[in-house]
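Priority: medium. Attachment 1 of 2:
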């Protein structure tokens, strides 16, 4: 069974919003849905590492702790860099899965940056505010992330 992009997107949203218990639950939902391949193992390890790194927040040199989640241009630049590693045939399947998880993370974060910026196109509701879930105003909807 393939990994649901909605689960992964939700994981990244929770991670960025520092809701670690919920992010861990999403990660536990993702794990049994993955086939036992090297690519998936690398992908899952990247997700686990992101959670652990962002949760501990003790390393000033950790990539996520230094990342500006609101700078869409930088996020897209990192996404292109990670996708270059995914396409690189010199990397093994584990590494390509690992970099693919990071590319997906940058994709989601760049869409979140768009959704949180009311001046951007296509990610806002009629009132000029990002659409959010009814119960949790800090979470944007998946619908916003699927729009291009």
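Attachment 2 of 2:
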């Amino acid at each position: 069974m393939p990994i649901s992009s909605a689960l992964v997107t939700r994981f990244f949203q929770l991670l960025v919003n520092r809701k670690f218990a919920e992010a861990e639950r999403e990660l536990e939902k993702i794990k049994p849905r993955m086939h036992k391949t090297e690519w998936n193992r690398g992908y899952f390890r990247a997700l686990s590492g992101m959670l652990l790194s962002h949760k501990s927040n003790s390393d000033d040199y950790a990539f996520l702790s230094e990342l500006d989640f609101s700078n869409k241009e930088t996020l897209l630049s990192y996404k292109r860099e990670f996708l270059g590693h995914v396409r690189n045939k010199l990397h093994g399947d584990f590494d390509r899965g690992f970099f693919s998880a990071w590319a997906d993370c940058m994709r989601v974060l760049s869409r979140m940056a768009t959704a949180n910026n009311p001046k951007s196109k296509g990610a806002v509701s009629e009132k000029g505010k990002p659409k959010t879930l009814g119960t949790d105003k800090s979470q944007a909807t998946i619908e916003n992330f699927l729009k291009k």
